[in-house]
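pasting input
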Amino acid sequence: MTTQSLYKSFIIEEYQLDEEPYYVPIGDEVELFEAAYKQKLPLIFKGPTGCGKTRFVEYMSYKLGAELTKVTKNDADDSGVNLPLVTIACHEDLTGSDLVGRYLLEGDQTVWLDGPLTRAVKAGGICYLDEVVEARKDTTVLIHPLTDHRRILPIEKRGELLQAADGFLLVLSYNPGYQSALKDLKHSTRQRFVSIEFDYPPMDLEAQIVEHEAGVDKDTAYQLAKLGEKVRNLKEHGLGEGASTRLLIYAGQLIAQGIAPRRACQVSVNWAITDDHSLQQSITEIISSIFE
Amino acid sequence: MTDKLKALEDLLPDLEKFPAPVKDNFNKAIPEMPDALSAEQTSDWLKRGIAIAGQTVRSWEAAAHFFQVSPNVISSMPYSYFVRWMECGASLCEESPTLAAAYFEASPATMSKLRSRHIESWANLGDGLYKGTWKSSTLACRFFAESSTLLESLSFQQLENFANFLDVLSHRSYDLSSECLTLGEQIFPLVGDDKDAFLSLATTLVDTGWREVKSFFEAGAKALPKIHPEERMRFLKLAESLVNNGGTNIPGTMLEISQSLSLLDEDNHHIVLGFAEALLDEEPLAMPEFIKSAPIVLEKLTILQLGRWYQEGVNTLSQNKDGGLAFFKIESSHSEAVIETLSSGIEFDRIKPVMEMYCRALAGAEIKLSPTDALVEKNIGWVSNESPTTEGSTVFVPTLVDRYGTKEENYAWFKVVSTHQVAHLEFGSFIFEFERQSGLFENLRFDLETRRIETLKEKQNKESAVGDDVTDSDFSGDELNDAHTGLERAWLTDMQRFFDLFEDRTLSLDIFTVVEDGRLDARIKNEYPGIKSSYTQVQSDSHENRPDIKELPAREAMVEFMVRLSLQQYEGVAAPSKYNKEASQIAQIARRVLVPEATVEDTAEATLRIYAIISAIPNEEIPPDDWNDMDFEDEDEEEYVDPEDMENLLQQIGMGMEMELRPEGEEEYESTQEVEYRGDFKPELAQLMTELRMQQQDEMSQGQGEPLTQEQLQELLENSAELDLQATEGEIQESSGMFADNIMKEAGANMPQSPDDSQGPFVHVDEDGGELEPAEPETFVYDEWDFRAEDYKPRWCVVRQKMMQEGDPAYFGATLNEYSTLVTRIRRQFEMMVPEMFRKERKLIDGEDIDIDDVIENMVDIKTGSSPDEKFYWRRNKVQRDVAVAFLLDTSASTAEAIDEGKNKQDDWDAPDDPVEYMVWLRTRRGEQMRRSYKRIIDMEKESMVLLINALEAIGDTYGIYGFSGYGRENVEFYTVKDLHESFSDKVKRRIDRIAPLHATRMGPAIRHAAYKLDNIDARTKILFLISDGRPQDRGYSREGVEKEYAVHDTKKALDEAKRQGINSFCLTVDKNGHDYLKTMTSDMGYEILDDINDLPERLLVLYRRLTM
């Protein structure tokens, strides 16, 4: 072939994780996930932004994949397959064919290109739809047959019904507080999923996480976690969302790079979560109380 | 002597012709006349007397006085002057015998103060005042009578001036003149050297406004003593120039000024008056305002800074007179800003929002921040106006912090104080549970309590045994009951249960306070390293204000010793030598709780132990030599073990013996002075408040729970050492009863108000008052625009947000039926506006551009042989409907106007200004409505709202409906019919029914509040729709009560502000005369005047549609 393809088709192995992601379980979410996976029950993660939903699904995919690989290796001494994780960030222009796939023109020919969802279905991986309510309504309908006992994905364009491979699992994430009422999930959709609620980790765990992720010392990590807790107390007082673990880690990373702690928190936490001047001042006061 | 008498004998028969007093007085006087008097002189004297007596029928009285005073008068002057005196008297008598009598009578006293050469002038002064009328005679007589008193403080020259003044004034009114004479006596001694100025001012005043003269004298009498003696002259000069500059109400102004000056340090009078004098050249009217504001400004600024504030005011004045006046009245934002910039103090109001959030974040609870005086007002046991404190849900902090020279330091102090108070909540001072184990100490509480109860039981048994013997068993029965409840369930809170262990509650509370505060301080410094440095600074500053430990008796000294330790003083802490061992034990115990894991229960255990040690120490004076300084290690590594004698000490407490064992004649134990930044700690009360609140909530939700009785509460209060109930038995009962009442109220006050309360009574605040504070929940404060001053009056209006009461929901349906044809038509029109939610419209036959995806699909279809879809264009949907609208309904009294009759509309401007009259006026107007069978403007507004809701529900716009009214700037009522984020429900239907005409129309704040509400809503298009029936007007919504333009300008400003916030405003009014002011008010914004109010519902919808298309 002389003409080079203008598109690239990712092979499913690219979705696999090479390293074990760092994750500290807060409750029984690991057990729940494993159980649901075994029973092929689709999952919804609910929780505020930056509390570790995406990290958790990565972690689970690696963990389960590693277990699966062990099993296959025992059966046949073949190159084991990890559990692929296909993450799709949903946006309001995301259509059904963006998920399923579409025909492309290549020279005089039409070529079918699988969408990410189709790949996951075929390969038996975890498909993670992040912030699913952002997507157009027609996408949620696509999901329905995949989530019940049928586990099929109809590919209309090709007139195919794709049966999901064994390892396939659909996981959605959903942030209830953050969208407008118009963008709520339909009940018919919601009731197909097992929901796991996420919240920010308790202070000591969060300190541990920040310490690991940001590479700061224990005390700083503890103080950052405390800042997180205090700022979250202000939710409902003009703060849409409390300071996320992610923000705290950012602050920690800046501190690790030698930025003064107060300044680091100011730029990564305070100014990130609110534009309200007096609220900013209050948070500045908290920061200056906690950090020297 | 006899010679003289002989010489007189011829004349004596003449005396007999007159009534007896004449002769009697002569006979009394003759022996006292000086011997030096010659026979001729004496007979001359007698002749003159007889001549006076013989002048008219009544002149014998004058003669009697003449003889009576002569010996006295002659002794104080040479004979030649005495003759003058007699001549003057005689000529006065020709004018009026009464006058002469007064002259003679007043002479002895006056002559001692009057130079002899002035006699004639003096007599002339009195004579001058006499105009031949009865009233003038009274005045002149009084003048003579008062002269001696007046001369004590006036020179003769000044007396002359005063007499002239009285004369001038008497042309206007004799009564006034006479009153001024009396006042003059009081006032002249006060005026000092400035009588001339005072008199000339008074005289000027007669010309400009003689009616004020009396109050001027009165004001002077009250005002002058308040002013530094050396500055009184300048003060009067100021007043005079005010008079010359046409100032009005001079006496009132003088009083106000002097009142303000009296609030100042006397040394500052000089400076302030200096500024005031300079200000006279700029703008005389600003001068009084400046002085009146000076004390307020000086609370925040130093006298030097005042100068800079003043200079800034003068600058403003030169640009804009009204602005300058407002500046000096501190009624402009600019003025406040200048003060704020200059001052180093931290004002509570300024930082409240920030600090409140800070406290909430730290505590993780809905904490409120209030100034301390608010707590004192509640009268629930806290009495100190200064000490920061908390009662469990609110942190109270001082109104103003001005301890240090710089803002930063003051702010740091403020933050430390707040952090400490919040720490009580954050680290659980009030969640003490008696049963919960202490982690750091062996738990001795339980053991101790058992012992206490046993001891009490024994006592009780003894008493009841005694009671059996005594016949009066009722009394012992009561005792028994009391003791019984004391054992079983006397405690309402765990804190109370704990303190019940100790006989000396004050001591135990003091120890508990120090230990707990120490624990919190350590915890804060550990948890919040950022505040550590300012915290340490504040702690070490606190040392300076501590009492001298060596002057305290031993037991108090030991507590003070603990305070020092807790303030991080570890070296050189003074302690009585003979109690060094105890001191180190205490230190060891107290420092156990400084670890982060310490809890309030640990504090309790530590208190118990320290109490055991300290209560055994007699409260005696320690000689100055028996002290030594103790040092402690920074870190205390040793494991703490209770000392052996602890058991014995506890045994004593258990027996309740600690008070009894104290030596006779020791000093009464008094609490040590509190540490300022730690403030007032009342754990028992705070826990009680918290518990009461919880109880209230439980009752609300479940309607059960054992309610606390007033008696129980009262008992707790009487026992508690936290209340200062130093009074006799009966009064304790009374005041604890009052506290109990208030506490109950306070705990219940947090309940949501019943809906009937929503239209509360008026709180009347004077227009001239200062800024307002949103003291209650659901109140908001807004600035108001003063168009003359071209500045905002800061925090001028209080908007009270209330829910509209609920009425009959049937009204809604009935209205829809009435308008059924219109309803269907409108609904159809509105449904066509249904928003297209997607930004991009795809699959169109034509549009902005082709959609690549669709084109490829099209190609694929061609390739695969199926029929292609031609719709592959997309277009951006331009009308993205994302509208939030707030409807603001004028529910002023004028909307009660009938509309059908079209009769002449009563002018709202006739509304009386006086509050009482206004209410009467309003009530009559309302009474008229009761008999109505016609439609009113408000009815049309209500119907419009019904139709509007119906239409808006069809298109799904965010909308809110609010009514506003109010009376005065402190009562702008803002009724919510439907909040912006509230969804439509039966409640809304019911509320619409209750929309009713209320009071006046203060539009500005209502608009600002509606804009504030819209600002919190996320929408692309925001609209403020104002529906009114006339111009804005309200009591005091004008300048000086006359300039109605003020209201229009403020409204305009409010609309401008809204526009800046991205809110489009539209005014719809039914006032046919609306063109004149609406043009000003809305400038380039839209407005419409409805010719026929009946069109309102339909027109409103049409306008709305057009506005949002």
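fyi Chain B is about 55% helix and 10% strand.
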